[in-house]
């Protein structure tokens, strides 16, 4: 290291310092701002140059728009060359137990006139209340049905009973289902219990009085709907509603009805009454009828919540009743189109019920239960027919005098 001659002194150090004017120039604000701007420009230029060179190694697939604005096809193109798939659900995968997944195909289920050949399933439905007395004969008639029993399912709804209906029903089902010979046993039998807390204190005359018909028909409609929705299965092609108090009917009734291939079909309902030692053939069911102009005019004057009941003097509808048309001695296959039906014996294509046609427990076009069912079915475009000369015999309920007005019961 070279030192000045004479050593390091204050004067020699001062000689090496920049002149004071240079220091003043370097510390001026204008100079400092210019220096700062220059540095910023240099940094920006270097950053842009580096980004541009890096972008040369990437290629953007798909349209130049926001993913939210892309169509499905554009989204597929945009993600087509993604190196790694996007994980939308990062949670642990949910394991599905295949035994809980059921596929039901209703397309093969049909209701055709060739029901026996095609092995079409029939569901027989019977609502029961205080029916113990009628059950033995009911099952004897079922036993005699010629439609293959292995294609028939039975279902019963028991409610508001004060007798031994439930226990006797169980006993009769056990008896008939245990008969393995001659194919007597039916494919299945189901008992459904439901209490509706309906009035059970009425005698038979009061129960069939006009004043009781509205509440009574509403309660029966509810029972029918509960039974229907609890028992109808995807495999059923036909639904056969059969009352427990039928006294006699042809063993071939299912085949006889099915061959007509109607959406809804009912027979004529009569009864036997023995008077003065002779058999009187009485007309029972006034709920199957053809609407009249008089009835249409009457309905226009009624409150929408009023429920009409046929066979009573309170309202003269002028309707034509199925019971007044037929005779069991004539052609049993003759058909007539109906606007209302009774519920003693009804054959229904199962798809009618599946389409939502049930038994209204309310006033539907001033009708309820089975008559409301017929109204609803016709409104939906289904056929409702009756067989005036095909007779199913009902027990004689000994109607209260005056219920029929001027109408003859026999």
UniProtKB/TrEMBL annotation:
Location in or out of the cell: Golgi apparatus membrane
Major location category of this protein: Golgi
Pfam name, any one: Anp1
InterPro entries: Mannan_Polymerase_Subunit (IPR052086), Nucleotide-diphossugar_trans (IPR029044)
Cited Gene3D superfamilies: Spore Coat Polysaccharide Biosynthesis Protein SpsA, Chain A
Record-level Gene Ontology MF annotations: alpha-1,6-mannosyltransferase activity
Record bears the keyword Disulfide bond: no
Sorted UniProt keywords: Golgi apparatus, Membrane, Signal-anchor, Transmembrane, Transmembrane helix
A biological process from GO: protein N-linked glycosylation
Recorded topology in the membrane: Single-pass type II membrane protein
Chain segments annotated as transmembrane: 20-45
GO CC annotations, alphabetized: mannan polymerase complex
PANTHER family assigned: MANNAN POLYMERASE II, N-GLYCOSYL-TRANSFERASE (AFU_ORTHOLOGUE AFUA_4G06870)
Recorded family membership: Belongs to the ANP1/MMN9/VAN1 family.
Protein name: N-glycosyl-transferase
């Amino acid at each position: 290291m070279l030192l000045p001659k004479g050593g390091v002194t204050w004067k020699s150090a001062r000689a090496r310092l920049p002149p004071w004017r240079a220091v003043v120039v370097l510390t001026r604000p204008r100079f400092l701002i210019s220096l700062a701007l220059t540095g910023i420009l240099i940094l920006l230029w270097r950053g842009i140059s580096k980004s541009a060179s890096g972008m040369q190694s990437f290629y953007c697939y798909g349209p130049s728009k926001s993913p939210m604005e892309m169509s499905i096809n554009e989204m597929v193109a945009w993600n087509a060359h993604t190196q790694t798939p996007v994980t939308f659900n990062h949670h642990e995968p949910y394991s599905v137990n295949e035994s809980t997944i059921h596929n039901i195909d209703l397309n093969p289920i049909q209701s055709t006139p060739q029901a026996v050949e095609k092995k079409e399933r029939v569901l027989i439905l019977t609502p029961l209340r205080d029916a113990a007395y009628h059950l033995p004969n009911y099952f004897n008639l079922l036993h005699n049905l010629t439609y293959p029993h292995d294609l028939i399912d039975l279902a019963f709804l028991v409610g508001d009973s004060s007798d031994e209906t439930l226990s006797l029903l169980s006993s009769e089902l056990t008896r008939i289902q245990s008969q393995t010979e001659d194919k007597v046993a039916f494919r299945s039998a189901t008992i459904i219990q439901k209490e509706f807390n309906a009035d059970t204190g009425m005698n038979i005359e009061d129960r069939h009085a006009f004043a009781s018909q509205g509440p009574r028909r509403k309660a029966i409609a509810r029972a029918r709907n509960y039974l229907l929705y609890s028992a109808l299965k995807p495999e059923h092609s036909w639904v056969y509603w059969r009352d427990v108090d039928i006294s006699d009917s042809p063993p071939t009734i299912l085949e006889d009805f099915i061959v007509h291939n109607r959406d809804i079909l009912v027979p004529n309902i009569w009864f036997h009454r023995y008077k003065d030692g002779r058999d009187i053939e009485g007309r029972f069911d006034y709920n199957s009828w053809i609407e009249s102009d008089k009835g249409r005019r009457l309905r226009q004057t009624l409150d929408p919540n009023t429920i009409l009941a046929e066979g009573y003097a309170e309202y003269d509808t002028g309707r034509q009743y199925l019971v007044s048309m037929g005779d069991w001695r004539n052609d049993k296959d003759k058909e007539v189109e109906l606007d209302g039906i009774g519920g003693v014996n009804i054959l229904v294509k199962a798809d009618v019920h599946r389409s939502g046609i049930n038994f209204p427990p309310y006033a539907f076009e001033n009708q309820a239960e089975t008559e409301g069912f017929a109204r609803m079915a016709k409104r939906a475009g289904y056929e409702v027919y009756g067989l005036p000369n095909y007779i199913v015999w009902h027990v004689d309920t000994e109607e209260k005098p005056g219920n029929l007005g001027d109408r003859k019961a026999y």
